[in-house]
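Data card: per-record layout.
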Amino acid sequence: MIELAVAYVGAYLGRKALGLLDRAGTDVDAVVDEKLGTLYEWVKGKLTGQPSAEMSLSLLEDSPEGEKQQTLVVDQLAQAVAGDEGATAELQALVDELERVRPPGISIRGLARGEDVYGEQIGAEFEGDLPESGEITGESVAKDVHGKNVGVRVRKLP
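The structure for this 158-residue chain is written out next.
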C-alpha cells in the first residue's frame, strides 16, 4: 500500500512539474488531481521534520518517475508510519479513495514535456473500447509550448 501511495505521489509531482494540474480535461481528472494533492500533502506532512525523509521527498520532487527516488520515499514513509495504526489507516483510506475515483480497469501512463509546440501535442490518445491489457502508455516531449501538451488523453465512445 505504501508503494502505491508513493507511486501516486510521483504521478502528482510529475503532473505538477509539467503544469498539468488545474488544467484537467474532465471532472474526473479534476477529482483525481484533488485526491492526488491531498495524498501528497499528507505524505509531506508525515515526512516533514525528518531531514533524511525530507531529502528523499525533495529528490522525488526533482525526479517524480525515478524508481530509486520512489524507493527512498517508500522506505522513509514506512518508517514514519511504523507502529502508528491511525496513520496507516489514514494512508490506506487516501489510497482507497484514489483507487475509487480513478477510471476503472485502466492503467494510464503518460509523460508530457515541453519544447517549441504550437498547437497540440499528446503522448497517448485513446478512444473506444479498452484494450485487453487495460493499459495505455504515452510520452509527449516539447519545450516552449503554445497550446496543449498532454501525456495521455482517454475518450470513451458511446
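Known properties of this structure: The longest strand covers residues 107-127. The helical segments are 2-17, 27-47, 51-62, 67-81, 85-101.

See the next section for split statistics.
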